[in-house]
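Teaching soon. Invent one.


***
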Amino acid sequence: MSSAADLETTLLGPVLPGRDCGDCTACCSVLTVDTPEFSKPAGVACVHVTDGGCAIHAVRPTICRTWFCGWRRVALPDAARPDRSGLLVSLNFVRQPQNCFEGVSINIRLMPGSDAIGSGMAGRVLDALCGGLVPVWFSDGARKMLMHPDREVAALVLSGAPAPAALRGEVAGWRERYGMFG
């Protein structure tokens, strides 16, 4: 892989046709940005956000130019767009992961005031994302929880213990793909 963008495309696929941000600016306020080019804390709207989107979209910083919302890449319902669902889906790259499931993973953030859990949208998004060999984390703002792989498989992958026959293939797949992060 030549870049994080290539890895993102490999794991999540290309930006889907018709999946433009529109007037959604959730990433512009939810995410922390800390680069030499631009920085802002999480939960604070970017100074360039307007009612119509980004005021400097054509010349936006590299971090903004190369970040893609998971909703734009994964076949999620239209209602899962962050400003509609209260969920922000992204691919995360952690330079010093605490375990192999944090190195490269999908993160679903529940935005403040969201009813995505009560409405069932969080469940639909999790169902759509938890099928492959990409770890999925869910964050409600207070804690981050590993949702995929399930607890038993994750424990076996992390411990290195032999897997029971029914889980052997799945555990081996996770170890092969994410062993470099362990």
Notes: The first strand starts at residue 33 and ends at 34. Residues 168-178 form the longest helix (11 residues). The beta strands are 33-34, 39-40, 49-50, 53-54, 87-93, 104-110, 136-139, 144-148.
